[in-house]
Design goal:
alpha/beta; Rossmann fold; UDP-galactose 4-epimerase, domain 1; 2 domains; seven-stranded parallel β-sheet; about 45% helix; globular; binds nicotinamide-adenine-dinucleotide; binds thymidine-5'-diphospho-beta-D-xylose
């Protein structure tokens, strides 16, 4: 079996590559990634020595490059992680989100049709369901909910999902889609909540909590997500959508306080800053379908996962210290200085 993993130099894609090489040592895995600000070759170091792994630098919107790669490699399965993934950046500059997340998906599906790929799996997000109210803990996202969007990022991901379903119905492309909640774990870029707060706490810098900090996210340990995708590409039904989440709902303030407690820093570092525009209130996944059809359940509880994640950032300081030494400083200044 030969698997193409796009966006594999990023957070979830790299974890998925490690998971697949370990779980299926006889599979060949090719990573296609153009190495944007958050794609990092250092992350892929553990895979580079593996004879079953190959890295190709390239942009998923580059039709010629993508078609040539598909012609040469004859992939059985494509798992599309490649995306611009940060909501705050999409609010500042939506254009690249539409290009990569929608047009990139189109190019990959066109190539999948042309070269007879057996399964095209789209890595989606729960943000395409919009948000849930804070005072209705009985409500959860299910796969049959209508799509809506609060940010240019979620609009681009919802558009991609619609395109994937259209390619299935119109051309018979064998697709599956997964929509997961917020991931956390090793190798996440320190622009997202958890790694950003760990980094700031360790440096005794303010922890910038948007609005009141009451917004709720449903945290999924990245390895549990990888396990779910592996199950879907093998046993999931073509044309179906699967939600992935493990009932690990926490308010942002709770998450930040947990981090401070674990690294032994005071809550006085918490600083409330201006809210995100269009800020979604609550995400919460109903994972009943993937559990019933494929037997998936998450293995990692939030308390264990967050401990392991903090330990990983403590043990791998050079990985993130290198990232924050460059253009990241400008990003941080722009996003947080006048908030
Ligand atoms: P990430 O930003 O860490 O990584 C994205 C990767 O895609 C990077 O390596 C980047 O270089 C690559 N990439 C970007 N544009 C590309 C292009 N045009 N061509 C080739 N490669 C390109 O993202 P992530 O957090 O790992 O997310 C992966 C996928 O999972 C995304 O599709 C995202 O929408 C989805 N997702 C993420 C989360 C989360 O909590 N992180 C939750 C739900 C869904
Ligand atoms: O500095 C911050 N302060 C803060 O209060 C940051 C970076 C975030 N937040 C809040 C905003 C959100 O309520 O924390 C919450 C989580 O924020 P992000 O880490 O930016 O994630 P989110 O916006 O929830 O989106 C994530 O989950 C769905 C991923 O980035 C998406 O790629 C995924 O689709």
């Amino acid at each position: 079996m030969k698997v193409l993993v796009t966006g594999g130099a990023g957070f979830i894609g790299s974890n998925f590559i490690f998971y697949m090489l370990d779980k299926h040592p006889d599979y060949d895995v090719v990573c296609l990634d153009c190495l944007t600000y958050c794609g990092n070759m250092k992350t892929l170091d553990p895979a580079m020595a593996n004879d079953h792994f190959k890295f190709v630098k390239g942009d998923v919107t580059d039709r010629e490059l993508v078609f040539k790669l598909f012609e040469e490699e004859k992939f059985d399965v494509v798992v599309n992680f490649a995306a611009e993934s940060h909501v705050d950046r999409s609010i500042e500059d939506p254009g690249v989100f539409l290009r990569t997340n929608i047009l990139g998906t189109q190019v990959l599906m066109d190539a999948s049709r042309e070269y007879g790929v057996g399964r095209f799996h789209q890595v989606g997000t729960d943000e395409v369901y919009g948000d849930l109210p804070l005072d209705r803990p009985d409500l959860f996202f299910t796969e049959d909910m209508p799509l809506t969007a609060s940010s240019p990022y979620s609009a681009s991901k919802a558009s991609a999902d619609l395109l994937v379903m259209a390619y299935h119905r119109t051309y018979g492309l064998p697709v599956t889609i997964s929509r997961c909640s917020n991931n956390y774990g090793p190798y996440q870029f320190p622009e997202k909540l958890i790694p950003l707060m760990i980094k700031n706490a360790l440096a005794d810098e303010p922890l910038p909590v948007y609005g009141t900090g009451e917004n709720v996210r449903d945290w999924l340990y990245v390895e549990d997500h990888c396990k779910a995708i592996d199950m879907i590409i093998h046993d999931g039904k073509v044309g179906e959508v699967y939600n992935i989440g493990g009932h690990n709902e926490k308010s942002n303030l709770d998450v930040v306080k947990t981090i401070l407690r674990q690294v032994g820093k005071p809550e006085s570092l918490i600083t409330f800053v201006g809210d995100r525009k269009g800020h979604d209130l609550r995400y919460a996944i109903d994972p009943a379908k993937i559990h019933a059809e494929l037997g998936w359940l998450p293995d990692t509880k939030f308390d264990d996962g967050i401990r392991q994640t903090i330990q990983w950032y403590l043990d791998n300081r050079s990985w993130w210290e290198e990232i924050i030494s460059g253009e990241y400083q400008e990003y941080y200044e722009k996003m947080y200085s006048n908030r």
